[in-house]
Amino acid sequence: MKIKVFNQKYKKRAAILVRPFFILFFISLSPALCAQFFFTEASQAKYKEVLKLKSVTGFPSAQQDQAANGINTYIEHLAETIKMLVEENPELLDRYKQNSEAAEIKVSGLNPNSPYYLFVLGEIKLQRAFVKLKFGEEISSMWELRLAYKTLAENAIKHPDFLPNNKSIGLLKILVGSIPEKYTWIVNLVGMEGSVKEGLEMLKTVSESETPFASEAKILRIAVLNFILGKETGSEKAVKDLYLSENDNLLYTFLYASVCMKNAHSEEALCILESSPDYSSNYLNFAYLYLMTGDIYLQKGIYTKAFYLYKRFLNEYRGGNFKKEAYYKIFLCYWLNNEDDKAIQILPQIKKEGNAIYDGDKYALYFAENRDFSDKNIMKVRLAIDGGYFNTAEDILQKLSPNDFHSQKDKIEYYYRFARFYHKTGKIIEAIKFYKKTIDLSGDKKLYFAPNAALQLGYIYRYQNNKEQAVFYFEKALTYKDYYYKNGIDNKARGALNEIKKI
């Protein structure tokens, strides 16, 4: 499932945080081991509904569902975790923490000899860590991740052939391999070992198995390849197959649309989102999907429709994240539609509403406070390229020249947008040229264009199997200081370096 992890950097993986941690069946276990961890018909049905992001409560009152059963406790905890990650209602946070601790105590009283015993305890800690991170409790979240790692690592020693461990430990190895520098003290304290390459192999093993965890491992692997490592090849087909397998699965809808948008296939993402299940009933309140759909209409230049979707997101969303970003995009709807007076009136709301944890919200706040306006044509190019509307982007770019811009920032962005256009359209020689031009012009300016140009050059050289140049540019991306979007760029560069250096 899609989980937003380690620091606020992972806005577009906001989705990665909503991933299933679950046990479906017991394979080749003795009755003694299975006695307190077992699946019933009711629990299997509930599990499937939870993973579709449906709103579910309680278990049927059948006698077998009232017995001490770690699986039922786990499903209930999973359902509450997903609800917190999807709806982000801060009023429910204290209750969630209390219920999570109660679930851990309940499982602690079950059969310690079962391979599911430590696995479920570790997963509960892991889920709780993601929720705490989502609500800005960074240090507490990192500590929970430390405890989850220790618990799962102990289970791997006790039960080395227990396949579900590969899914969870594989994910943790990837996350630790790309962890921000400010948290390395926690990693060193517990001896957590990160390896993106090893973690991917562990996920691959589970994804290609016949276990019930195969689909989850596929989703995690796709998310890591796209949103951490920047590897896109083959991912869309894999997630599309999952999406087509369950057309009422809102999680698959979200993941498929997210991957499409990440890869500049917004038109396909729009079809997916607008044909998704009716999430106004029976599903969790996944208001973030309105924000995603609004982004596509903004990219297309259909500002009235985008405005409506952003307003709907703000009306239905209960959390504090993404609000500043949404108001900033409402500003863009007015501004790009040449309604400058209305646009200016949105700036105080950007400063007032929501949190500034994620990079998108941080940038929105920076923009509102500094009124750091870009050229309107360059902004339209940026949005069109992001969505894969390359003809629109090319038409605008062909009419521009560096002499059209008065500020150095706009001139740098002019070259950067050309680099992005050439990269996305497969003109790699031209892309390399313009990325390097962006880096040269940027100097020590605190803008994200140069560090992201370095990151993209790293991706290009990695694809060309030029390890030396790839490492050079990934390391260069990490040298830039104090600019917005730093968290996301740094973690992608660090994850890519970890993978390359351990090949």
Automatic annotation (TrEMBL):
<keyword id="KW-0732">Signal</keyword>
<dbReference type="InterPro" id="IPR051012">
    <property type="entry name" value="CellSynth/LPSAsmb/PSIAsmb"/>
</dbReference>
<feature type="repeat" description="TPR">
    <location>
        <begin position="412"/>
        <end position="445"/>
    </location>
</feature>
<protein>
    <recommendedName>
        <fullName>Tetratricopeptide repeat protein</fullName>
    </recommendedName>
</protein>
<dbReference type="InterPro" id="IPR019734">
    <property type="entry name" value="TPR_rpt"/>
</dbReference>
<dbReference type="Pfam" id="PF13181">
    <property type="entry name" value="TPR_8"/>
</dbReference>
<feature type="signal peptide">
    <location>
        <begin position="1"/>
        <end position="35"/>
    </location>
</feature>
<keyword id="KW-0677">Repeat</keyword>
<feature type="repeat" description="TPR">
    <location>
        <begin position="451"/>
        <end position="484"/>
    </location>
</feature>
<dbReference type="InterPro" id="IPR011990">
    <property type="entry name" value="TPR-like_helical_dom_sf"/>
</dbReference>
<keyword id="KW-0802">TPR repeat</keyword>
